[in-house]
Structures are given as structure tokens and as C-alpha cells.
Amino acid sequence: MKNHSKGRDSKGLFNDCGFVVRAKAESGEDIHLWMFTYRQRGSETIVDGDITQTLMVYGKFSDDEKKSMRDTPYTNKGQNIDDYLTPGSIQIQEGAKQVTWTNAGREMIFQPPYHQVRGTHAGVKVELDFKQSADGFYHCGPFEALKADSGIAGYIVHGRVNGIIEVKGQILKIINGHGVHERLIIGGTIPPLIDYNLGGGSQWTHGWGEEFSWFTLTGAQRPSTTAMVMIDGEPSVVHGIGKAIVTEIGEWLDPRTKQMNPYKWRVQAHTDKGDLDAEVSAYGRAFYTWSRLNGSLLVHQYLADCVAKFTKTNGTVLHSKQVASLEYMRTLYRQANDD
């Protein structure tokens, strides 16, 4: 099994691998857990480093509490420059049927369609097993098309998650939760994220239900939105102006950042298998700043629920009460370069 990482450290590089868990513990807590390890090189990243990030927001919320956004406590470590580890600290072991990534106490084991995440980072200990629901959706292109020192490739894949999360002395048991695995490489010239996230920024959204799941990737500086609906065990994908639309329909004044941020969205997509119409409502969040060349980003991750409908081309309508997770980022500060 190839890791596609060897020989890609000579120029700019963003080499990313990780998991998101969106689940409800047996004890009643709603959970959004982000676990990513990546290697970054080049001027866009300011400081070369190997990074492991853990972000977690969780808690028990009543139905009334889920109707509005709130200032939730959270765990986050890994994105501050002082968290960066020495380049080369990530260890990648490549075998015929298995690839293992290890860094900063976190271990990720890949044996598609099965994966495991183990170890402790940022005080969050996990023993999680992930099983893919289908093959990956290559929203950034296939790895086979990568050149020796440049290009972009990557996928996301939805799956089910089982296992244990231990945080602050509390054990949260997950049975048949939802999740996503992402794998991404950008080599050569790294895109200027400060420029890409001006204005309304960008977002990465997932919704999961028993009837179907879906994913969108959009941004204010992009001409179109990419959307994927996993329906009847197969992905239905659209990409193009007007074929998928993400609309902010609710804002919240965050008492910590003193900024107005979105917390509700409507997602619409027209695919070859039918139409998606979903309303996503967040009720818990975590945030951090991400330092990049010539500025910084403010990144939010949301614990959310979703009410979705998929109308098949034959007229059949599927209603789905879902859980959701979002990553929303926008440029917080852009340095003017007048020289």
C-alpha cells in the first residue's frame, strides 16, 4: 500500500492525513473530534514543521439548547507555531497492505477499508476503529497523476466509527458513530490561503444519516461549489457554477472573538441521481488562528445537526435527520505588500 509521500520534501509541501469523528456517546454526549497529522514545507507555511492537531468539542445538549449557538468549551492543540515539531518527526511505515503514520503520541493505521486511530495527544486518548462506507471521493484528483515534485491529489471517504475516547478522566464510548477520513497532498507551489479565504471565506461540510450522507466544499473566492452525495452506496458528484449552493441563513455574535460568524446554512445540490436540500444548524464550536504567509486565518469547527431531504430522479423522497460537522475559515488579517 503506497503512502505517496516519499521524495516530496524538496519544495513546497502540504502532506495531510486525518480523521473527523461525529458521534453520540453511549452516555449522551454529542462529539466532534478532529485528529490530523501533516507535514508542511515552504514559504506559504512560514515555518517548516511536522504537525499533529487534536480538536474536540463535546457535551450534552437538550433539544432546546440545539436551537441556538453557544460559547462551548473545547480542546485544541497543534496549530500554534510553538506546537510545530521538527521536520521529519512524522514516521511513515509503508507495507504491502498497511501504512502507519505516527507523530506526537498519535498513531494512524490504514488498511482500506479499515483504519485505526490510537494514542494520546492534547490529553485526548483514543482507541477508534473506522470502516469505510464506500470508496473515496477524489475531490482533488488521483494520486497517480502527481508529478515527482508538484501537483495536488486527495480524497475524502465517509465511514462508521466504533471505540473509546477518553478526555479529562471521562470515558466516552462510541458505537456506530459517523466519520470522515481525509488524505491530501499539495506539492510544488502551495496555494496562498490568505487570498483564497478573503471575504466570506470557505467551508468544508459533512452530513451523515442512515438514509444517505453528503459533503460540500465551497468558498467565496471560488467560482463554484463541489458537492458529493453518498446515495445507495455510490457517490453522486457535482462541480460547477449553480449546481451546488451553500447559503448562510443564520449569524451569531461570538462572545470570545467579538465577531459575527455563521452558524446556520442551507445546502442545495443538483446531482444526476437527484436533488439534495439540507439545513445545517450548529450549536457548539471551537476556533483557532492559523498563521500563513502575509497574514492569518480564523478557523472555526462546528458541532452541528442537519435536517436533509434527497429527491431521487424517479420522484422518491428520502427524509433524513442527520448529524453534521463543519470547518469554516476566513482571512482574519492580510498584510498589505506595497513594496
How would you describe this structure to a colleague?
- The chain contains 1 helix and 20 strands.
- The protein is mainly beta and 339 residues long.
- The protein has 2 domains: 1-191, Beta Barrel (AttH-like fold); 192-339, AttH-like fold.
- The strands form 2 sheets. Strands 4-3-2-1-11-10-9-8-7-6-5 form an 11-stranded antiparallel β-sheet, with no helix packed on it.
- A hairpin with a 5-residue loop joins strand 1 and strand 2 (30-41).
- The radius of gyration is 19 Å and the shape is globular.
- The termini are far apart.
SSE arrangement, N to C: EEEEEEEEEEEHEEEEEEEEE
Give the radius of gyration: 19 Å
CATH-derived architecture of the largest domain: Beta Barrel
Q: What average pLDDT do the residues reach?
A: 93
The major pleated sheet works out as: 11 strands, antiparallel
Helix content: under 10%
Q: Tell me, what is the CATH class of the largest domain?
A: Mainly Beta
How many domains make up the 3D coordinates?
2
| 3D shape | globular
Class by alpha and beta content: mainly beta
Tell me the span between the first and last alpha carbons.
48 Å
Topology-level CATH name of the largest domain:
AttH-like fold
Strand content: over 45%
Assembly state (oligomeric): single chain
- Strand neighbour order, sheet with most strands: 4-3-2-1-11-10-9-8-7-6-5
Spans where pLDDT lies below 50 across 5 or more residues: none
Query: Helical stretch count?
Result: 1
- The counted number of beta strands is 20
